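Issue 218. Parser rejects a valid record. Input:
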Amino acid sequence: TAPDQSASAAATAPAEHVFDLNEEDLSEKSPTSTPRAVQQAAATRAAAVESAAAKPAPVQARPEPVVAATAPPPAEPTSGEAAARMSGNFTVQVGSFTRSSDAERLASKLGSQGYPAYVARGVVNGTTYYRVRVGKYQTRDEASRMASKVKRAEAMDAFATRVN
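Output the parser choked on:
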């Protein structure tokens, strides 16, 4: 190969005849003033470049896509403690009740349908409310998309809100 030829030629040549081979050096020198080893290396390199340009690139077959087997999603949380494991500053509110049993019933129904529903307790003007919420999301836009999904699929009112 070209590198082996130039390396062996450089190793046998006296120190004053060792050259760094580059295109600029070759273009400035005439063939008669360039040492023979450099001329041979240049010819070999030019032939290799010409040969590579003439050959079309090999066509590689596309790899088959890897499809990972997915397990069904784990049961979604329905309590305040489980919801605390979710993160984000926004949520979807689907109901607010003064009786915790009503809120728990709706949260359980939504949880059995795959929503990450939970109950959040809040006090407003001395009255305790149990708010049924779905998930926690990083952005209001993510929460709004889930609210739209719940509205369509469950035919209930839902809106995105900031987690207090």
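Fixed in the parser; the record now loads. DSSP finds six helices and four strands in the chain.
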